[in-house]
Amino acid sequence: GAVVSQHPSRVICKSGTSVKIECRSLDFQATTMFWYRQFPKQSLMLMATSNEGSKATYEQGVEKDKFLINHASLTLSTLTVTSAHPEDSSFYICSARDTPAVPQYFGPGTRLTVT
Amino acid sequence: GQQVMQIPQYQHVQEGEDFTTYCNSSTTLSNIQWYKQRPGGHPVFLIQLVKSGEVKKQKRLTFQFGEAKKNSSLHITATQTTDVGTYFCAGTAGKSTFGDGTTLTVKP
Fold this sequence. Notes:
The structure holds two protein chains of two kinds. Chain A is mainly beta.
């Protein structure tokens, strides 16, 4: 199946700093990438959808100035959590797909802890 | 907006028992996907259903898509301890919406 990598897998940062998370599709072109947030024992919450070369579409309630998403190529999308605070601590997962008719393939996730 | 309800939220079974999770959408779907997330892991794609009334099998797993393309189910026959995890459905109607998942625990 299609492979999506995510880096870093874990990151601990201090409150007020920014953190960048990378999501890469390794063996297919990801026209669309999705960013999710997952709290313990909860479902996936879609944060934003990004199409290569376009601005990301954010879900209601997600601050676009806080969660900066860049999808500059067909294989790479980045999520930058700016001025992180402890409440931003969570599991962030990206997924990618080539066309709407195919499933999303998920990256392994990034565990962010803000101290 | 589109809503996808998934029940039950939790299911605890004895090894060897069957397990079923159900997914219901508020809108007609173009397709539905099922994913499995092991504890501490990320969702892994299992299958996609597209056609009305479609039934697909993967070994002990049987997936169904309703005639109206608004509901789906995943049935596991004779559960094993390796089946533990959370099973998510994701319904697509323009965009994909995930259900809240059903967490399965299996007692040996």
